[in-house]
Amino acid sequence: MDPEKKSVAKAEAHIARTHYQTIASSGKHAIIIDEPEDLNGGDTGMNPFELLLSSLGSCTVITLRMYIERKMWIVDEIHIELEAFAVPNGYLVESKVTFTGNLTAEQTERLLQITEACPIHKLLSGNVIIKTKVNNA
């Protein structure tokens, strides 16, 4: 193994003949990913874009919750809405975060900065290299 590489996660995806239903798994967890009916899927799960946005959203609110707990601020709920758009140079992701609790304007501004500390945010906005090989069965 390359000493420069540090594994942070492993996952697998499997598709058989059911139009485009895919089982994604990591460790002891599994979810169904599918395409909507208008793309000839069965609509039995989130599509890949929705799954990606859900990963970013969940990572963001978890990161925020960890920070809020360390600071001992009073926040009952954190809600995030995300939407991806195709734009001429690629994609744009817009998110809106809502806090339910007692926060000052300064605390809210700090939490906005913390949203960019989420590891998935860093992965998506950083330098990503994807290498694919064929694994002969």
Description of the structure:
This protein is of the alpha+beta class. The protein has 2 domains: about 10-45; about 50-135, K homology (KH) domain (GMP Synthetase, Chain A, domain 3), CATH 3.30.300.20. Helix content is about 30%, strand content about 30%. It has helices at about 50-70, 105-115, 120-125, and strands at about 10-15, 20-25, 30-35, 75-85, 90-100. A 3-stranded antiparallel β-sheet has the order 1-2-3, with no helix packed on it. Strands 4-5 form a two-stranded antiparallel sheet. The radius of gyration is 18 Å and the shape is globular. It starts with 11 loop residues before the first strand and ends in a 12-residue tail after the last helix. The mean pLDDT is about 95.
Which key terms come to mind for this protein?
two-stranded antiparallel sheet; globular; GMP Synthetase, Chain A, domain 3; alpha+beta; 137 residues; 3 helices; three-stranded antiparallel sheet
